[in-house]
Design a protein that fits this description.
Low-confidence stretches: 286-296
Structural class: alpha/beta
Number of helices: 12
Mean pLDDT: 94
Number of strands: 8
CATH topology of the largest domain: Rossmann fold
Bound molecules: S-adenosylmethionine
Order of helices and strands: HHHHEEHEHEHEEHHHEHEH
């Protein structure tokens, strides 16, 4: 592990796909290759791996450095808290800050998790947030939508892995396009939000991920804008929208100066994820009765 960490540092490997530093990355790959539990290192430190096992670990270290493949694609797994997900290059490696908020059932913004009966994970990728929604809101039926047919195949595998086929419906959809007429108590979304200028500067590791999952247009807000302007039509009264927008808080607030966002603290800071209730959103599809009254 110490060798791996030194090797990663010397070759300026980039982190951010599950671990944040060279030693944790080396430890994760070594424990995975040796089929050891990931929880703690100490119990395994006296083990003497066989030459074959050592070769396996070194092979992973080498691919990590020479091909710059994120560890999760080498091991075909990623973790969000205690939840393990299958991943490959058809989806980004799960790391959404929304997962941290779901761990507390989105308290205090959702007072009674049992009252959430319908939820949407828009831009679901591997299906990771949809699975967490199902876990934290046990009475909810969930739609998980993505534009990528390939990503949905990975999501299908994860949904089946957690035996959630009866509660999570996978939908191929360009944002809300295939969701006409649906209403949700809760919408979460981790859409693509990397600015064009930043896309060009991303470390090599990120080029193994689907660009469709990262590229958010010139200012990073292409998808966020549509989500903000259309969500009201898909939320039930009192419904909550939760969106991860990268470190784009200032841009979002400049683009929507009248909206009263809440930016909860996550391990990424207080500029990554916003929450907003249906009643605080622009209403693009006012009910027919109100529209008639307005023109009368
Ligand atoms: C940042 S990834 C998030 C994946 C997953 N929710 C997560 O947190 O790991 C964004 C996802 O949005 C999908 N996507 C991109 N453009 C989309 C669109 N117009 N409509 C629906 N999904 C889209 C991509 O295919 C990708 O899976």
């Amino acid at each position: 592990m110490r060798h791996g960490a030194r090797y990663f540092r010397a070759n300026r490997v980039a982190f951010g796909h599950g671990t944040t530093n060279a030693f944790d990355e080396a430890a994760y790959l070594a424990l995975h290759a040796l089929k050891l539990p990931l929880g703690a290192l100490e119990p395994h430190c006296d083990l003497r791996p066989t030459p074959l096992q050592i070769a396996k670990v070194l092979k992973l270290f080498e691919r990590r450095v020479t091909e710059r493949i994120p560890a999760a694609y080498l091991t075909r797994e990623a973790w969000l808290g205690d939840f393990r997900f299958y991943v490959d290059e058809r989806v980004i490696v799960p790391r959404s800050y929304i997962a941290e908020l779901l761990r507390d059932d989105l308290a205090p913004w959702i007072a009674k998790p049992g009252r959430v009966r319908t939820a949407l994970d828009l831009c679901t990728g591997s299906g990771c947030l949809a699975v967490l929604l199902a876990h934290n809101f046990p009475r909810a039926r969930i739609d998980a939508a993505d534009i990528s047919h390939d990503a949905l195949k990975v999501a299908r595998r994860n949904v089946a892995g957690y035996a959630l086929q009866s509660r999570i419906r996978l939908v191929e959809s360009d944002l809300f396009a295939a969701l006409a007429g649906r209403r949700y108590d809760l919408i979460v979304s981790n859409p693509p939000y990397v600015r064009t200028a930043l896309m060009r500067r991303l470390p090599r590791e990120y080029r193994h991920e689907p660009q469709l999952a990262l590229a958010g247009g010139e200012d990073g807000l292409e998808a966020v804008r549509t989500i903000l302007s259309e969500s009201a039509a898909y939320l039930n009264p009192g419904g909550l929208l939760v969106v991860e927008a990268g470190h784009n808080r200032a841009r979002v607030e400049r683009a929507f100066p009248r909206l009263a966002f809440t930016w909860p603290e996550t391990s990424g800071g207080d500029d990554c994820v916003f929450l907003i209730y249906r009643e605080q959103l622009p209403d693009i599809n006012p009910p027919a009765g109100r529209a008639i009254a307005a023109t009368a």
